[in-house]
Design goal:
Blueprint (H helix, E strand, L loop, with lengths): L2 E5 L2 E4 L4 E8 L7 E7 L6 E6 L5 E3 L7 E6 L4 E6 L8 E8 L14 E2 L3 E6 L1
Parallel strand pairs: 2-11
Antiparallel strand pairs: 1-3, 3-8, 4-5, 4-9, 5-6, 7-8, 9-10, 9-11
Length: 124
């Protein structure tokens, strides 16, 4: 049974930082591309960042230079370091796993597994 469990969300002031973690189990973690998506209130879910099984990374324009995605295959964990947070970063952040890596960056439809999300709230 595959599980993706996000943690690290919370309330932070604008300009602050948070680090999200996603612990994976039940899969061969190193063989999957991993992605972070977010969904803000009233908006569609969007890709924030992703990292391939080989370590290539992709970032949405809105977070480039502020967020960093990284993975630790020994710990079956993917991270999202978020710096210089803005109120518009407020959203539920989801971790997802892509087994086949057919598209880059992956689409939401490419993702085989999803976590339940962690809430990030950035106050002005």
């Amino acid at each position: 049974q595959v599980q993706l469990v996000e943690s690290g969300g919370g309330l932070v002031q604008a300009g602050g930082s948070l680090r999200l973690s996603c612990a994976a189990s039940g899969l061969t973690f190193g063989s999957y591309a991993m992605g972070w998506y977010r969904q803000a209130p009233g908006k569609e879910r969007e890709l924030v960042a992703c990292i391939s099984s080989g370590g290539s990374t992709y970032y949405a324009d809105s977070v480039t230079g502020r967020f960093t995605i990284a993975r630790d295959n020994a710990k079956n964990t993917v991270y999202l370091q978020m710096n210089s947070l803005k109120p518009e970063d407020t959203a539920i952040y989801y971790c997802a796993a892509d087994r086949y890596e057919r598209r880059w960056p992956p689409t939401q439809q490419s993702m085989n597994y999803w976590g339940k999300g962690t809430l990030v709230t950035v106050s002005a």
